[in-house]
Amino acid sequence: MEKTQTMSFLKEVSQVPGGEGVNLCIQCGTCTASCPSAKIWEYTPSEVIAMVRADMRDAVLSSSSMWCCLSCYSCTVRCPRDVEPTSLFHALESLAIKHGYKPKNTTTPVMYNSFVKSIKKNGRVSEFQMMMGYYLSTNPFSALGMMSVAWKLLSHGRMPLSARKIKGKKDLDKIVKKLNEVRGAQ
Amino acid sequence: MKSYTYFPGCSSEATAVGLDVSSRSIAEALGMELKELEDWNCCGSTPYGSLDELEAIAVAARNLALAEKTGLDLVTPCSSCFVTLSKARVHMMEKPQLKAKVNQALAAVGLEYKGTVKVRLLIEALMSDITAETITSKVKKPLKGLKVAPYTGCQEVRPRFGFDHPENPIALDTIVEAVGADAVPYPSKSKCCGGSAVIAEEGLCIELMYKLLDDAAKNGAECIVTPCPLCQMNLDAYQAKVNSKYNTNFNLPVLFVTQLIGVALGLKQDKLGLKKNIVNPNKVLAKYL
């Protein structure tokens, strides 16, 4: 841990899978101009990259910005320097979680957590469990607004309430456990 | 008959059951043998990768290692699974140290990932191995006169694993024409629908969907086709919400492209999961069913 904290933020980001391209950015703004969700970002995509380069760890990791990425890869296709901003924003999300930041103004991390919880429980995603988990840990009343959509999916046989567990669930647990041992040892 | 290992993806058991059913049916009719990967797990998914990329790669790697044993190409109909599995594969190919860590983890259950399995999208396999000409030769009910907006979405083409142009893809247009229908000009064909962000950022995503539906309607489309589970679910299940927010009256059926192909091949409705569609496609397809 001590090693991570003394390392510069820029260096830490560049060492996460997907964060390698951060040093290549020339601040042309193509990513921001191409982003379908840029208007809801706290700092725009190109601003976030500039902030990482300026080593603004706290401001970046506590912001809701990267959580607004829709993973549509428009920026990645258009970036003239192959920064791969989509992967970079995923890397920033993972660092925010790793260091315990809880960004305000976005419930996307809660949704992602609920999603991954469902995978860890069954080996596959149960969309129903994922949505229930999300609404219960954010605002259960907001689920009311979803009732019309949920009912349509349910009544068309597209939202089974029970989850199917894979046979190799224990194997999957072992893989994840071993991975974290290997990672921790280094 | 060419054989493939088939990876249905989690949505095949829920929101995208129509994609799974229709994929299996048209594959059979077109001479592709799809052998489901035994006891597959989640592909790794975008949310997992955002929270912990390395763990997500290891989860994906169990599938890749299992698939590798079959010696066949791994084919998935899901755009998102395609991206996630491809991403894991490329990370392990480009970073030997990362691959070594993942293999240490896989060894705990007696698996090993060598890096030989090919990850392919069903639509790409249809275009490359079966070809549009063969599809046309097997059409029993040409969809003459049907105006279709070919909506590729982002995942299938945009990340560096795509097989088509990242912003102006043409594979769907080719398929639509191959079954006798008309592909209308659709400038939004590779724009994002918002994906799973619709749960946490509904307002933004409803706006993106409005633009997609409006573009299809303005170009005279009677229906939209897409290969992507998320695009289909969003445009189908949220269409009424778009209508109430934007005071519009879109009534555009959103078909999986595999369903469209199936109709043209003369397959029965229940083999294509058409009853799972929320915006009822029967009126638009009445002439051809």
Give a description of the structure.
By secondary structure, chain A is mainly alpha-helical. Chain A has two domains: 2-98, Fumarate Reductase Iron-sulfur Protein, Chain B, domain 2 (Orthogonal Bundle), CATH 1.10.1060.10; 108-185, no CATH class. Chain A has helices spanning 2-6, 9-15, 30-34, 45-53, 57-61, 74-78, 85-98, 108-122, 127-137, 147-155, 169-185. In chain B, β1, α1 (17-30) and β2 (32-36) form a beta-alpha-beta unit. Chain B has helices at residues 17-30, 46-51, 53-70, 79-94, 96-107, 122-130, 132-138, 171-178, 202-218, 229-237, 239-246, 257-264, 282-285; strands spanning 2-6, 32-36, 74-76, 119-121, 147-150, 182-183, 223-226, 254-256. The mean pLDDT of chain B is 96. The radius of gyration of chain B is 19 Å and the shape is globular. With 289 residues, chain B is an alpha/beta fold. In chain B, α1 (17-30) packs across α12, α3 (53-70) crosses α4 and α9 (202-218) crosses α11 (239-246). The chains are: A mainly alpha (186), B alpha/beta (289). Chains A and B meet through α6, α7, α8, α9 and α10 of A and α2, α3, α5 and α9 of B.
Largest sheet of chain B: 4 strands, parallel
Major interchain interface with per-chain residue totals? A-B, 66 and 68 residues
Rg of chain B, Cα atoms, Å? 19 Å
Q: Provide the domain count of chain A.
A: 2
End-to-end C-alpha gap of chain B: 27 Å
* CATH uppermost class of the largest domain in chain B: Alpha Beta
CATH architecture of the largest domain in chain A: Orthogonal Bundle
Question: Order of strands across the biggest sheet of chain B?
Answer: 2-1-3-4
Give the N-terminus to C-terminus distance of chain A in angstroms. 11 Å
Share of helical residues of chain B = 40-55%
Count of discrete domains of chain B: 2
Give the beta-strand count of chain A.
0
Individual helix count of chain A: 11
